[in-house]
Amino acid sequence: MAEATRNDEIIRTVSSLPPGELAAFLAVSEHGGFRAASRMLGQTPSALSHAVAGLERRLKVKLFHRSTRNVSLTEPGRRLAQRLMPALSEIGLAVEELHEQSTSLSGLIRINCDANAAEQVLMPLLTRFMKLQPTMRFEIRSEGRLVDIAEGGYDCGVRAAELVPDEMVAIAIGPDQQHIVVASPAYLDGAPAIKIPSDLSLHQCVQLRMASGSIYRWEFQRRGEDVVVTTPGNLVVDQSRLLLAAALDGIGLAYVTRWMAADALANGKLQQVLDDWTPPYPGLCLYYPRHRHFGSGMRAFLNFLKAEGSLRAAP
């Protein structure tokens, strides 16, 4: 009887709170700000701010510290979020299980990634999944700079393993990567020998300007020795494909992925140098926030990627 009475009290308390205010509070607490939460809910930051303020008035407690630059949970707000999130997740799972029994998977998954990663690994996986689940929708935003996927309103991101933030869950989705130094036979004919990375100072090297504005420095490793080289060159580009094109035209040396140069190496249009200084390194990962609640479509996509990884790893 006591437990039933307590449950009745909880139901009366929760039912007295407008669901929009609770949803606004949970979205802002999960995404760390009103702007990011507004993109997720499809509301304006001002509307979310008013909703949270209304909840604070009803509960007679301050839930967020607000400043012009930052929004953070107060201690009471943190405790409330910790209590509500597991319950919300369970409700969502229960509703989705009912929904999945009568309908096919649906929904939109937004992915932020590097353009080369999308072309090399993500698109082949994604198209295979979409053939299995034709009602699913995807939107891919490819850009060079590393973004906060939660702040940007993305469900997940795809980057090199070394670039994935520590607080994210990561799934390996591709083979090891390898950056190599290549040039056309015409460029190498009669050019100074290239035996060690410091020999690059005698050559024209096609430069890559990063999204941050800096020029990428070429990285080498051999028998535990790491070398980073600032290379000379008269041409600067901002896309890896342009590096390859310049090398094919005999402009100079280029530092590109083996995957990108594979065809040109196979047909002899490019040659590799410094082979023993460019070993493979861990490849691409799809990553997402550790405590994000996902719908059935996203969960199915993640399970598909994990299964694909297991198949690749099998002997």
Break the fold down into its secondary structure elements and pairings.
Blueprint: H1 2-15, H2 19-31, H3 34-41, H4 45-59, E1 64-66, E2 71-73, H5 75-102, E3 107-113, H6 115-132, E4 136-142, E5 156-160, E6 168-172, E7 179-183, H7 185-188, E8 207-208, E9 218-222, E10 225-229, E11 236-237, H8 240-248, E12 254-257, H9 258-266, E13 271-273, E14 284-289, H10 296-313
Parallel strand pairs: 3-4, 3-5, 8-11
Antiparallel strand pairs: 1-2, 5-14, 6-14, 7-12, 7-13, 9-10
Helix pairs in contact: 2-3, 2-4, 3-4
Task: Explain the overall architecture.
The protein has 315 residues and is an alpha/beta fold. It has helices spanning 2-15, 19-31, 34-41, 45-59, 75-102, 115-132, 185-188, 240-248, 258-266, 296-313, and strands at 64-66, 71-73, 107-113, 136-142, 156-160, 168-172, 179-183, 207-208, 218-222, 225-229, 236-237, 254-257, 271-273, 284-289. It has a five-stranded mixed β-sheet, covered by helices on one side. Strands 12-7-13 form a three-stranded antiparallel β-sheet. It has a two-stranded antiparallel ribbon with strand order 1-2. Helix 2 packs across helix 4 (45-59) and helix 3 crosses helix 4 (45-59). The longest helix is centred in the N-terminal third of the chain and has 28 residues, at 75-102. It is elongated, with a radius of gyration of 26 Å. Mean pLDDT is 83; it is low at 311-315.
